[in-house]
Amino acid sequence: xxxxxxxxxxxxxxxxxxxxxxxxxxxxxxxxxxxxxxxxxxxxxxxxxxxxxxxxxxxxxxxxxxxxxxxxxxxxxxxxxxxxxxxxxxxxxxxxxxxxxxxxxxxxxxxxxxxxxxxxxxxxxxxxxxxxxxxxxxxxxxxxxxxxxxxxxxxxxxxxxxxxxxxxxxxxxxxxxxxxxxxxxxxxxxxxxxxxxxxxxxxxxxxxxxxxxxxxxxxxxxxxxxxxxxxxxxxxxxxxxxxxxxxxxxxxxxxxxxxxxxxxxxxxxxxxxxxxxxxxxxxxx
Length: 285
Ligand code: GDP
What we know:
GTP binds at residues 91-98, 173-177, 237-240. Its EC number is 3.6.5.4. Part of the signal recognition particle protein translocation system, which is composed of SRP and FtsY. This protein has 285 residues and is of the alpha/beta class. Helices cover 45% and strands 16% of the residues. The protein contains 11 helices and 10 strands. The protein is elongated, with a radius of gyration of 20 Å. The chain binds guanosine-5'-diphosphate. Guanosine-5'-diphosphate (GDP) binds next to helix 5. Guanosine-5'-diphosphate is lined by residues 91, 93-99, 176, 237-238, 240, 263-266, 270.
């Protein structure tokens, strides 16, 4: 399933597997360092990994070390109890928020669940229009308002509308203008507060969308959002057509947050649940 990510770590894999006919069971530390760097794992993390391993590294040790970086991905919050399950989607403009919202909605629909979208990026008229277009395309209801109106009001109305209609999932879009961070921080905090007023415990998941093609530079962006609101987990987009698989390790390790899904295309179906074991297995297979 994660075969498309393999390219970036291909050399690492090849080095470990290269000696035929028997798979090489060990690899030197220096060599491992070079290979992980080539695979776009950040320098700091490579150092950390290499230092934690002996002079020659057994495959199984490398596997265990890599998998341990994703320990936060093991825990998942699933919908339970009262409807709706509310998800707040944050991230910078262009990261893939709108598209990912459509993908999540499509996924829930295909599981037989009902979904309602909230267009709370009221800062950009285009964002409202884009989400409306997606809502029409995947045939789910949407709550929206005019550009410039209070985004918290949209979130509040979306949750109440879903409560009244007994809808399973509410997915709320937010603004991503990181250049005016202070305003955005206040805006996001208020949306979170108001969600809680509309429904106790909401939003149940605050998900950060990161552009996978940005590799390690997405980490700083993520830290900025983490400071604004308490992010629960990440979705990494645009991992198709790029081989920055190594960046996933750095993102998971640096942010200490679960990766829920990865985006692998522009269509509503192009969202894959992230399974750390499967990912590391594919890479070391
Ligand atoms: P937003 O500004 O954060 O809402 O970002 P959009 O959802 O508008 O996405 C920005 C661009 O990235 C659009 O052209 C999307 O089609 C594209 N995009 C989003 N997710 C993916 C993905 O997983 N793969 C690819 N190839 N493109 C994506």
